[in-house]
């Protein structure tokens, strides 16, 4: 993690230590942005002033723009670089999808079990683990959240766990965080 000067140091030296100009950034994005001047060259999304979901959405592991700021952000930060970004999002998505398929297998075991508590606990732990991947401190949490909360399997398993009284308050909070972090394209 690095500190980005949202208004670049080269053109806005007076803001170098201004707290409102300092944003956390991954090294890759900080390097990509470099000396880009949002005032002279075009605004990009400032997550301290705007919700990124108003400007960007995620579809097929690629960001789509919903505004000029979103378009500039994708271009300046190279967010859809196939090797560096899209591939990583794809791998995360596929991992989540595989774990959801495993959870669905466990769900079917629960339905057919004479003693369903053991597989039910396993199902609950699996969903808790998936929700943990969506936590705000996790890298690529928006990608994980978008994939998980948009999955028909997840929606079915959540409803089942709620109906069985196995959906905990902690899971509910983690789900709300995931929904908030998700960036699905609606079109």
In short:
With 187 residues, the protein is mostly helical. The chain has helices at residues 27-33, 38-41, 68-77, 82-112, 117-133, 141-149, 152-163, 169-181; strands at 2-5, 22-25, 56-59, 62-65. The strands form two sheets. A two-stranded antiparallel sheet has the order 1-2. A two-stranded antiparallel ribbon has the order 3-4.
Q: Please count the beta strands (DSSP E, at least 2 residues each).
A: 4
Largest sheet: 2 strands, antiparallel
In DSSP terms, counting alpha (H) and pi (I) runs of 4 or more, how many helices? 8
Helix content: 55-70%
Q: Spans of 5+ residues with little confidence (pLDDT < 50)? A: none
Shape: elongated
Radius of gyration from the alpha-carbon trace, in angstroms: 20 Å
Mean pLDDT, rounded to whole units? 92
What class, by secondary structure content? Answer: mainly alpha
Going across the biggest sheet, name each strand in turn.
1-2
Strand proportion: 5-15%
Along the chain, the helix and strand elements come as: EEHHEEHHHHHH
Distance between the ends? 33 Å
